[in-house]
Amino acid sequence: MYSLYSRAVNIPALTLSNDKERTLFELGESRSKAKKALSKQSLLTVPPNDPESDLIHRIWLRQLAYHDPGNPLRTPSNVHPMSSTKLQNTSIMQPQNRNRHQTMIFGGFLLKQTFELAFCCAANFAHARPSFVSADPCTFLNPVPVGSVLYLTATVVHTDPAIVDEDSSDDTVPSSKMTRVQVRVDSKVRDMEHGTAKPTGQFHYTFSVEKDVKVMPRDYGEYMMYIDARRRARRSEEAEKKVEGEDRGNIEPERASENLTE
Is 163 part of a structural domain of the chain? Predict the structure, then answer.
């Protein structure tokens, strides 16, 4: 049954009948190309650039200052090491959560599990109720069979405002009433006999909390997770600005025509 439904199938081409449909099609095509381009900018293939390397060095210096007996600067109560933010969950995949025509778990159920763990991780980190902001696009790397064991690990990988000012040489960051918290959930699956583990996907969620809290990476792996999350945050900001600009462009002509009719 599984081999029948796991083969690739031909997708019928779309027929575009008007300008609106053509615009939507071009928008989808551009986003698809942008997604493929982003996959080539992974830290696994592209090392941190000069500004990112400088930021890593500044955070490292701040970390040293916090632990230097001769330095009066001490770790603030609202700054937490990334390693202390982790939450983990392990569960057996049950048949009621499978796809209708397969013995594989439904992807929507996996998203629900990762989102709930990410929400709890953000709440545990901030000691405040998070508000959901956005979720990055995700790709399922391997299927999750019924009866397998799913392991999820959620980590707070970035906060905005950050531990140091990312846009200037001044490391002083003013306190903020609101903080954006990015949580990364790593998932892997094992069979019941606990054979080889396979990654099933990586999920990124952004929440907002009404509190001033910050996360601090400490080793190289955590710094790479921090930089990757920072890149995602910057891309989201650019996308939001672009959408807002397009919305204004669509609204302003309508308003102008309304004024003319008045």
Answer: yes
Number of H helices, E strands in the chain: 5, 7
SS3 26: helix
Give the CA distances from residue 31 to residues 24, 25, 28, 177, 248, in Å, rounded to whole numbers and listed in that order: 11, 10, 5, 34, 20
Q: What are phi and psi of 34, to 5 degrees?
A: -65, -40
Q: Do the domain assignments include residue 89?
A: yes
List the structure tokens of 244: 């807002």
Length of the chain: 262
Q: What is the largest CA-CA distance in the chain?
A: 74
Is residue 88 domain-resident? yes
Question: Which CATH number belongs to the domain containing residue 181 in this structure?
Answer: 3.10.129.10
Q: How many domains does the chain have?
A: 1
Q: Is residue 117 within 8 Å of residue 152, measured between CB atoms?
A: yes
Inside any domain, residue 27: no
Q: Which domain holds residue 107?
A: 76-241
Q: Rounded to an integer, what distance in angstroms lies between the CA atom of residue 83 and that of residue 39?
A: 26
Tens-digit pLDDT string for the chain (262 aa): 344 445 667 888 888 899 998 898 888 888 777 777 666 667 777 888 898 999 999 999 999 998 898 888 888 899 999 999 999 999 999 988 888 777 888 889 999 999 999 999 999 999 999 999 999 888 788 889 888 999 999 999 999 998 887 766 656 666 778 999 999 999 999 987 777 889 999 999 999 999 999 999 999 999 999 999 998 888 877 766 665 665 555 545 444 444 433 3
